[in-house]
């Protein structure tokens, strides 16, 4: 495994572990998801440059656009949660309550 592949894999796994083990605040979970998406974006960009595939070059930009949409939806949920519940702690959220 090359050092480039190792660094992208490590960044993705660290983001995944952050989502899995550090779920106290919604904002920290969103930041971990954003880190995972950015590592995937950089890995796809480097892969398309290394392989010289010209048909696959729009895919990293589409992934970045979807990541921006995901981030905006997550921040909207964070604001709505903070307004209704007063905090962004995930343990205080109840899905059965309106």
Automatic annotation (TrEMBL):
It comes from the Eukaryota. Core subunit of the mitochondrial membrane respiratory chain NADH dehydrogenase (Complex I) which catalyzes electron transfer from NADH through the respiratory chain, using ubiquinone as an electron acceptor. Part of the enzyme membrane arm which is embedded in the lipid bilayer and involved in proton translocation. Its EC number is 7.1.1.2. PANTHER family: NADH-UBIQUINONE OXIDOREDUCTASE CHAIN 4L, NADH-UBIQUINONE OXIDOREDUCTASE SUBUNIT ND4L. Keywords: Electron transport, Membrane, Mitochondrion, Mitochondrion inner membrane, NAD, Respiratory chain, Translocase, Transmembrane, Transmembrane helix, Transport, Ubiquinone. This is NADH-ubiquinone oxidoreductase chain 4L. One of its GO terms (biological process) is ATP synthesis coupled electron transport. The keyword Repeat does not apply. One of its GO terms (molecular function) is oxidoreductase activity, acting on NAD(P)H. The chain crosses the membrane at residues 6-22, 29-49, 61-80. GO terms for cellular component: mitochondrial inner membrane; NADH dehydrogenase complex; respiratory chain complex; transmembrane transporter complex. InterPro entries: NADH_UbQ_OxRdtase_chain4L/K, NUOK/Mnh_C1-like. It catalyses: a ubiquinone + NADH + 5 H(+)(in) = a ubiquinol + NAD(+) + 4 H(+)(out).
């Amino acid at each position: 495994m090359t050092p480039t592949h190792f660094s992208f894999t490590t960044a993705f796994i660290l983001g995944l572990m952050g989502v899995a083990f550090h779920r106290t605040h919604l904002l920290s979970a969103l930041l971990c998801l954003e880190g995972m998406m950015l590592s995937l974006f950089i890995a796809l960009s480097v892969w398309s440059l290394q392989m010289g595939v010209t048909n696959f070059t729009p895919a990293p930009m589409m992934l970045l656009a979807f990541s921006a949409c995901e981030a905006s939806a997550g921040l909207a949920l964070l604001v709505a949660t903070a307004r209704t519940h007063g905090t962004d702690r995930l343990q205080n959220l109840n899905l059965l309550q309106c």
